[in-house]
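Hi support team,

I submitted a single chain yesterday and got back a structure, but I'm not sure I'm reading the token output correctly. Could someone confirm the output below corresponds to the sequence I sent? I've pasted both exactly as they appear in my results page.

Thanks,
R.
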Amino acid sequence: MLKDNEKKFGKGVTALGLSSVDSSGRFIEARYLRTWRGDDDDHTGTVRIDEADLSRRLGRSFSGVARHDAVRDVYIVPIQTKIRNLHEKAVDLCDVYLRLYLLSARLATPDQVSLAGALDFFVNVAWTSVGPCLPERVEEVQHTARISGQGVTVGSVWPFPRMTDYVVPTGVKVMNTENVRLGAYLAPGTTVLGAGFCNTGSSTRGATAIEGRLSLGVSVGEGTHIGGGASLMGTTSGGGKQVVTIGRNCLVGANAGVGIALGDDCIVEAGCYVTAGMPVSLPDGQIVKAIDLSGKPGLLFRRNAVQGNVEALPSPGWKGLNMMLHQ
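Hi R., thanks for writing in. Yes, this is the structure output for that exact sequence:
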């Protein structure tokens, strides 16, 4: 049976959009305006197209979009990006941006899109209130803008932009938009509170409350609360290979951490960090590595207040999400 996006796109996609290009001809970011199913024999890559071609295919409202932005000293150029197979590695920066857009727009799910090697193509970008530019250009951009009466603020200096500058998915609440990166997949009902952070490639699978940090590749199930200061380990650096998935109706307490998969209805006590190689005591006295409990449902992980060891006990359950936050 085909997955939803494979019914729409096959395994590939073609998209039209606009890219910011610096004075050396380098693409520094891209945003997409229209996507449709790609042909199986399509090549993968990005090409510039004429503005007339863009207007013909998308409508007259796109006439005049190609221009030189004198403030940022970048050229806005129409592009066409084709990806033959979303499961294959990206081949250029615009290819990566299209994959991130598909994820945040919920046109594809994380298991359907490979982000392998994506960091190889990214350049460091200053995300300013007048648009993206290279960091070494910020002072000149601010000076040029002030001459024309504009003020310029810099939200971040980072390869990945915030999601809401490119797409705002329906049914989602985000208190601090700077903390959600493009390429995060947020299901309807997701609430990201002020201290919550959702990195590129992280995902939620239903109504969830995120007060902690979701790293690259982390997936959180419906009905789960990730408490303030909690950290779900990713695989970006440090050599970690364990993909962290959190099941349905779990509670990860404040300042806790998880480096294994949790099954449904699990609780991690506040302040308890469960890493894959950590010894964990079971009710029968047996001691196992935490990784041996990966994905098992109905567990409470806590640190014994007297002896200091981490225990895995049957979960007593919890009251669940405050659904007023997720409507």
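A quick pointer for reading it: The chain has a mean pLDDT of 90. Let us know if anything else looks off.

Best,
Support desk
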